[in-house]
Specification:
With 567 residues, the first copy, chain A, is α/β, with parallel strands linked by helices. In chain A, helix 2 (27-38) packs parallel to helix 9 (318-332) and helix 7 crosses helix 17. Chains A and B meet through helix 2, helix 4, helix 9, strand 22 and strand 23 of A and helix 2, helix 4, helix 9, strand 22 and strand 23 of B.
């Protein structure tokens, strides 16, 4: 990436070195603390534009929601802690305005004293993060329009709610932050409208997997406007604001939250001529070194490699940022630690529902040009069904064909969701296959799981599809196929709702009625969640018929239909 | 294992085959159902001594506790389901009394009709399970003394509690079933005494990791008698029973539960001359085939390989039993699926506390003669500390030295315990190292985890120990070492309790006071949970001193002391 000689700073000189870190949250803070543990002699100085370093920015929505009532809880480590524990100097409310790579200096502005100074470095770490996107639309700077990036941001929102006695809010953007803000504003007793340009919430999920989240929001009274973007915001009567959508909707509210997404803060880097990638992030190698051998960059501002698709991506998540900070520190200290890339493991809790994912989504695979994959759906309980309180998990597993390598998983449910995604994330880390999931040995007692855990089931079902025991039908061809659709549930289940055009042959009668079924056409089988259709598939295949399985059955059909993907 | 020609039954003949399955729970039921899916033409017949097949025996304690109120919930699949869905014949209340391998027949007794018949087989699957151990001691057969293996067992216990208005119980044995029975009897408002021959509860855990479970039981009012075995049971006045311990304690109660453990049911196999292993289980190969090429065995009755220690073991758990049933079915059907062995992943919930483990324990490693390992302790919150409600997890990670391969993990806490064990279990499955755990990318939002998840922390701490950044002190040498013990917590923490002989040098003063510390002696550092001692270790090591870390700090010390392992 760099044509300069790639030397670690330690290698160069026996003298104490000066390491500057721009940005003191997550990646920057991790890097500074780790560096001290590796090198007691280096001078380590951290600059941050805001009043705090090392605060829990993932906690900000919950501070707005008053779930976290005490602001001090958000301060993971204070400037004083950095000084006393780590001998690291922290300069808050200090903005870095310029980087002179040749002179190896930063131009630094003290926002309180209004003074400017130069700071020299032997090694520099850029951890500027990413800024909430504020689209250049009329009204986005009106009072009452907020983003959620810093503790002062959250404090202002809290004050606005309290002082204006806000009753209604429009949240713009249905991703992680948007949904967490919806939850927390509802927790504050506000009525919330959600405006999202895409036709689904939770863009990291595939549309059909986002359906249960959408339905849950609707059930909890959120006024959803999907497939409609922000056009402008106008001042209404009194203190109210009017959000005007691209589709012409006028949504009046006491406050507006902008949660459209974030953009890497690369101004300092790009003005200094550091390489910026096609995704808009700072380009780094696997030791987090930029195109300048004395400059490292970490966190939300950099481009990293997605280990599943092999493509560069920008992924603003705290876990990877922390790991990157450690890797950069080790590189600066002369250790050759490698950042292994990201796999986009993420979770969000929304009003009692949990949605989590790891690896690639189906749309992500298609975007990356990967077509040699297949997928299964299942809807197991989060623990054994015989123990009271089992909650369904809707699970989608994507895997490579024919080798069965796990490519990604998405899960939605009330309980035990993130556990399954964490297990699958771990399997992905090791390049595991669906066969590995099938034989994973996981915790089982009736209140925690099942003898065949949902992860095992996902692996078994996918393995059945791969090895030909259970050929899969393509849900997207449902409206076009000339296959015979057969629903093997019992008549009363069938009567309560079924896939259009399907005929009903209950599994319990299948052995007697097999003669009714054609041998010259494909038979696409479905049931409630997929288990009985699988049994039927095995029976028909062994009798010389041509069955395929509609993975996940009628339950999957309902989400596909709600997502507008089948009719 | 067998000198006979190892042929699959399918390979031999084109005709329909007859497969008999002895035992219709877990492994046997899985095998029968799987076999039907693989081979529609085989005749599959299941025999079970009891009145039910495929019942949820892991749910029995909860049925006693009335947490599962409806007995029918325990019936995963009925004989009728097996017939209608799988075309599998099920004969309940039918005991198999003899096996003639030469004639390929079973002698079968119908326990209702009191008739005996012969049943011939082409392939035979033994899934007899394991029976609760009833030690040959006086009084174990008295009315009111129960084991918990079957639905009728549980029904009898329920009836006894209801009819005798039982108020007190003695549970003998503090393993999984014993503790689940304690929980459920307390749920039924009984006062419970627990008698356990070992000096710890939960034998799969190392003693210090079982301490929090013991303390939790004590806090919940359980009368614990550890290190004391059963001598005899006598009839007391009225309907009461008197449990007399080896130590001479006399424990009066309205009922007694025997939960000492289980023993593989191998009578049929051994009388027929099948090989029985040193652990008392039926010997099988990795396709679950016994020493007779036409006979397979699965479940609690067989010996399996522990993938961590490489040794044979008997592990009565439902998950592996189910997997074994599938493997046996595939072998019978001519597929060469391999059972990968077991890693002893297990979990138990006790009155709101969860204890889980995977892989080898420290004592298990020592038993197996493995000495090239080390271990770390940590006590992280189950989610980010800044979000309300974080509960500590006590975690012990065992790893191979010097390669860092994960050997085992144990965790105890109120929430998120089994999730971390499942993730580590998955890493063990792939032969993962502590470095892999350090860089695992897991779900993080404040209510679910942390930017550095407990699993990451465990890996990081172990990696620090392995690579020399944080040399470990040996807790077991605490009473003998001439090292200087230094506690780096703040004075008020130190004053509230500390390791004997430790001096107090707070981390915040360490850089100033380093001159007070000796350069010619080891310095063993501790703090509350290990983090500050690690920082101190790094500082002192870089200053030429000889620090070691007492892993897990004062929190670990307290459990070790409570376990009698340090003074």
């Amino acid at each position: 990436m760099s044509n300069e000689e790639s030397v670690s700073v330690r290698g160069e000189t026996g003298e104490a070195r000066r390491v500057l870190v721009v940005g003191g949250v997550a990646g920057g803070a991790s890097c500074a603390a780790r560096l001290r543990r590796l090198d007691e002699s280096a001078e380590v100085v951290v600059f941050d534009r805001g009043p705090y370093v090392s605060f829990a920015n993932c906690g900000l929505p919950y501070y707005v929601g008053n779930v976290i009532a005490d602001e001090r809880k958000l301060l993971v480590a204070s400037a004083e802690t950095f000084r006393s524990r780590f001998n690291v100097s922290v300069h808050t409310e200090t903005e870095v305005t310029a980087l002179d790579r040749k002179a190896r200096t930063l131009t630094v502005r003290d926002l309180r004293a209004h003074t400017v100074r130069q700071e020299c470095y032997d090694a520099l770490v850029l951890a500027p993060g990413a800024a909430p996107i504020r689209p250049p639309l009329p009204g986005v700077d009106l009072p009452g329009v907020f983003a959620v990036r810093s503790i002062p941001d959250s404090r202002r929102i809290r004050a606005w709610i309290a002082e204006r006695e806000a009753r209604t809010a429009v949240v713009i953007g249905g991703g992680f932050i948007g949904l967490e803000m919806v939850e927390n504003l509802i927790h504050r007793k506000l009525s919330v409208t959600l405006l999202e340009k895409l036709t689904q919430v939770m863009p990291p999920l595939d549309p059909e997997m986002a359906v249960p989240v959408r339905q849950h929001l609707e059930d909890r009274g959120v006024d959803l406007h999907l497939g409609d973007g922000l056009a402008r915001i106008a001042q209404g009567t009194g203190h109210s604001l009017i959000v005007v959508s691209e589709g012409g909707a006028e949504l009046t509210a006491d406050m507006v939250i902008l949660a459209i997404g974030v953009r890497p803060e690369t101004a300092l880097a790009s003005e200094a001529g550091l390489e910026i990638g096609p995704r808009g992030g700072i380009v780094v190698d696997d030791q987090m070194r930029t195109s300048d051998a004395r400059i490292w960059a970490v966190g939300d501002a950099v481009e990293v490699r997605d280990v599943v698709t092999g493509q560069e991506t920008v992924l603003p998540l705290a876990g990877p940022a922390n790991r990157q900070g450690r890797v950069a520190a080790e590189s600066i200290a002369g250790r050759a630690t490698r950042f292994r890339g990201v796999q986009a493991t993420a979770v969000v809790g929304v009003l009692g529902l949990t949605a989590a994912s790891t690896g690639a989504s189906e749309k992500g695979l298609r975007r990356a040009g990967i077509t040699t994959f297949d997928k299964v759906y299942l809807h197991p309980g989060h623990h054994a069904g015989y123990y009271p309180g089992a909650q369904p998990i809707r699970l989608k597993l994507l895997f490579s064909v024919p080798d069965g390598r796990i490519l990604g998983a998405q899960a939605v449910g009330r309980k035990g969701v993130e556990k399954r995604i964490d297990v699958i994330a771990t399997a992905i880390q090791f390049g595991g296959t669906v066969h590995d999931l099938a034989e994973a040995e996981l915790c089982y007692a009736p209140q925690f799981g099942a003898a065949k855990d949902p992860v095992n089931l996902a692996g078994m079902i996918a393995a059945n599809a791969l090895n030909g025991d259970m050929p899969l039908a393509d849900w997207m061809q449902l409206g076009r196929t000339d296959a015979l659709l057969v629903d093997v549930r019992e008549p009363e289940e069938f009567a309560a709702g079924h896939i259009p055009r399907a005929m009903n042959v209950p599994l319990s009668q299948l052995r007697q009625r097999v003669g009714e079924l054609p041998r010259d056409r494909e038979i696409w089988l479905s049931c409630g969640v997929g288990q009985r259709a699988y049994y039927a598939t095995r029976f028909l295949a062994q009798n010389g018929l041509r069955p395929r399985n509609l993975s996940g059955g009628y339950t999957t059909y309902q989400t596909l239909r709600a997502a507008g993907m089948v009719s």
